[in-house]
Write a structure and sequence with these properties.
The complex is a heterodimer of chains A (about 260) and B (about 400).
Chain A (H helix, E strand, L loop, with lengths): L2 H4 L6 E7 L5 H13 L4 E5 L10 H12 L4 H12 L6 E4 L2 H7 L1 H11 L3 E3 L12 H6 L3 E2 L1 E3 L7 H6 L5 E4 L15 H11 L4 E4 L5 H8 L4 E4 L1 H10 L4 H15 L1
Parallel strand pairs in A: 1-2, 1-9, 2-3, 3-4, 4-5, 6-7, 7-8, 8-9
Helix pairs in contact in A: 2-4, 2-12, 4-6, 10-12, 11-12
Chain B lengths: L4 E2 L2 E5 L2 H17 L3 H14 L6 E3 L1 H7 L3 E6 L9 H14 L4 E6 L3 H13 L2 E7 H6 L1 H9 L3 E5 L6 H14 L4 E3 L10 H9 L1 H14 L5 E5 L4 H7 L9 E9 L10 H4 L1 E5 L1 E6 L24 H8 L3 E7 H15 L5 H13 L8 E6 L7 H7 L7
Parallel strand pairs in B: 4-14, 5-6, 5-8, 6-7, 9-10, 9-14, 10-13
Antiparallel strand pairs in B: 1-2, 2-12, 3-4, 11-12
Helix pairs in contact in B: 2-4, 4-5, 4-9, 5-7, 9-11, 10-11, 14-15
The chains are: A alpha/beta (about 260), B alpha/beta (about 400).
Chain lengths: ~260, ~400
């Protein structure tokens, strides 16, 4: 079992997302550890990209802020290396295909293993193109996280069958961002997945309140929150630590 | 597994949310491209509504003035809505209708594709939304009003560099929000498979006609075809049926803006590198970490950091050549064609005219160049006047 899958073994997992370098990489390192203390089981670290087509305005702006202060993939690897000395929590990258491809797939995943990254989420890498990274990522023990969408329908079982680490179930149509209501029949999709895969299912996109998280965690193995965390960082900047701690704790408590 | 490859380029690098829509589109297109009723209806629309076939005009004064090769202009500027964009849009709108879609969305740079999409939507009864960068809604204000007049909603894109790239980003985001009833009318030979193939097929009417027309007029094939390239749809359409004719040079003109040695250009082949963006593997203007570069051109339609995957492969295989043309050269050609032939070209197409002005004098009088005049320049007149220091506002 991968290191990532283990976090789902005895509890509902809380997965937090933040954008690396927003507001600074030093603060990113600090916030990762703060969120772990507050109960996060895994942190997704966004490598900023100039054109994040799956993101709504909140995370898109965080990407552009991070790039504007000179954040690069190399500096992010250095930050991860430092964080890794202080935590055993699984860490996963979220980024787009181009930053990985242009950096060099081999060099990228080698650095992932050396710095302690356990998985990667690439929103613009569908099943059909997974061979762009899968062989190399697997060789360096990095799980390539499978995304399943409300529109996946007859593709669900094909996608789920090969999934490792966890399955990222996209709760809603559209881009990332806080939503007041989630209309997709999550339970039906999870049931389809469970028929063919033992890989844990975490649900993301649009979740921001403890009530939503609690409801989702009735059937899902984990809950992913991104935009709401990024918004706290956008509002409070370098001083976001305390607010982040309280917020993450409230969500983790809700699903425990 | 990976589909729609042109050499190493192409593919389908898009979010899972869109995969079923892309597969549905591919299945529908595979069926309708062989369906006689569909093709007959499209041909009737292209002829009776858009005004095809477009003329192949012998530019006698320009030829005499440049003193070399005979120059012919493929007059896509005479199409309804004023550019080649209508060829692709009528095809995709008809396809969307057959697929049962009720809403069209599209990106636009100069506004030509947006106007064409809004036109087809009005004609065939679709709801329509266009995404256009704020930079472009400012410099192409007339086209914004044309789209509104045609009943489309124009969304001003304020993210990133606020140009064509960002308009594509936001149209893709919109498509992931609402995919059931909506078709994304992609305007160039780019994006995920099957778009590069669909757009190329619908635009290939340009070279199909031009090939027959030049054989009828001259009894021989041209020595060179010249077209401007942003994403590359008019060039792909102008090149396609000449690809097997190995002696015909295919020349794409990229926007060099203030010069390829400055930061202000959009010359993807000259200055770009291999990457994966907007659904495709191809060449892009980008930095060492794969961040897409903010590109620049006086021409909103060429102001794009990538190029379609089939062009990237034509470059790799050396079947086509790509040359950078600066703003100054394009503006000079814009004025030259206006004065010499009484034809005001789109500033995009003026990039192709500019290279013909360089190439023609080096060729002999029995050689032939066809310039694909992809659009007309009415939309650019105010901006060019401002470029020349005249204080004209629309």
């Amino acid at each position: 079992m991968s290191k990532i899958s283990e976090i789902f073994k005895n509890n509902k997992a809380f997965i937090a997302f933040l954008t690396a370098g927003d507001p600074t990489l030093e603060k990113t390192a600090e916030f990762i550890l703060t969120m772990e203390k507050a109960g996060a089981d895994l942190v997704e670290i966004g490598i900023p990209f100039s054109d994040p087509i799956a993101e709504g305005p909140v995370i898109e702006k965080a990407n552009l802020r991070a790039l504007s202060v000179g954040t690069t993939t190399d500096k992010i690897f250095d930050m991860v290396k430092r964080v890794r000395t202080k935590t055993q929590m699984p860490l996963v990258f979220l980024t787009y295909m181009n930053p990985v491809f242009v950096y060099g797939v081999e060099k990228f995943f080698k650095n992932c293993r050396e710095t302690g990254i356990n998985g990667i989420i690439i929103p613009d890498l569908p099943y059909e193109e997974k061979n762009e990274v899968l062989g190399v990522a697997t060789a360096y023990d990095v799980d390539v996280i499978t995304l399943i969408a409300p529109t996946s329908k007859d593709r669900i079982q094909t996608l789920a069958k090969d999934a490792t680490g966890f399955i990222y179930l996209v709760s809603s149509m559209g881009v990332t961002g806080v939503r007041s209501e989630i209309k997709t029949d999550i339970n039906a999709i999870i049931a389809d997945i469970k028929q063919v895969s033992k890989t844990p299912v975490a649900v993301g996109f649009g979740i921001s309140t403890p009530v939503q998280a609690k409801e989702i965690s009735k059937t899902a193995d984990g809950v992913i929150v991104g935009s709401a965390i990024v918004r706290i960082i956008a509002e409070h900047g370098e001083n976001a630590g305390d607010v982040l701690f309280k917020y993450v704790k409230s969500l983790k408590d809700a699903i425990s | 597994m990976s589909k729609g490859k042109f050499g190493v380029h192409g593919g389908q690098y898009i979010p899972e949310t869109l995969m079923n829509a892309i597969i549905e589109l591919e299945t529908a297109y595979e069926f309708y491209k062989k369906d006689k009723d569909f093709q007959d209806e499209l041909t009737a629309l292209l002829n009776d509504y858009a005004g095809r076939p477009s003329r192949l005009y012998f530019a006698k004064k320009m030829t005499a003035d440049l003193g070399g090769a005979k120059i012919y202009l493929k007059r896509e500027d005479l199409n309804h809505t004023g550019s080649h964009k209508i060829n692709n849009v009528l095809g995709q709108a008809l396809l969307a209708k057959r697929m049962g879609k009720t809403r069209l969305i599209a990106e636009t740079g100069a506004g030509q594709h947006g106007v064409a999409t809004a036109t087809a939507a009005a004609l065939m009864g679709f709801e329509c939304e266009i995404f256009m960068g704020k930079e472009d809604t400012d410099r192409q204000a007339l086209n914004v009003y044309r789209m509104k007049l045609l009943g489309a909603k124009v969304n001003v894109v304020t993210s990133g560099t606020m140009t064509l790239k960002d308009a594509v980003n936001d149209t893709m985001r919109e498509w992931t929000k609402r995919v059931e009833d909506t078709h994304y009318v992609l305007g160039s030979v780019m994006g995920p498979h099957p778009f590069p193939e669909i757009v190329r097929d619908f635009q290939s009417v340009i070279s199909k006609e031009a090939r027959a027309q030049i054989l009828e007029k001259e009894g021989q094939l041209p020595n060179a075809i010249i077209a401007c390239v942003g994403g590359g749809s008019n060039a792909m359409g102008a090149f396609y049926n000449f690809i097997p004719d190995q002696d015909v040079r295919l020349i794409g003109c990229e926007a060099a803006g203030k010069g390829v040695d400055t930061a202000l250009h959009a010359a993807t082949i000259a200055k770009g590198s291999l990457g994966i963006f907007h659904g495709m593997k191809s060449y892009f203007c980008q930095d060492e970490y794969g961040q897409i570069a903010p590109v620049y051109s006086i021409s909103a339609g060429l102001d794009y950091p990538g190029i379609g995957p089939e062009h990237a492969n034509l470059f790799d295989t050396k079947r086509a050549e790509y040359v950078p043309i600066t703003d100054d050269e394009a503006v000079n050609a814009f004025e030259y064609l206006s004065r010499t032939e009484g034809i005001i070209p789109a500033i995009e197409s003026a990039h192709a005219v500019a290279y013909a002005m360089v190439l023609a004098p080096t060729m002999t009088k029995d050689e032939i160049i066809i310039i694909n005049l992809s659009g007309r320049g009415d939309k650019d007149v105010a901006a060019i006047a401002r470029y020349k220091g005249e204080d004209i506002h629309e």
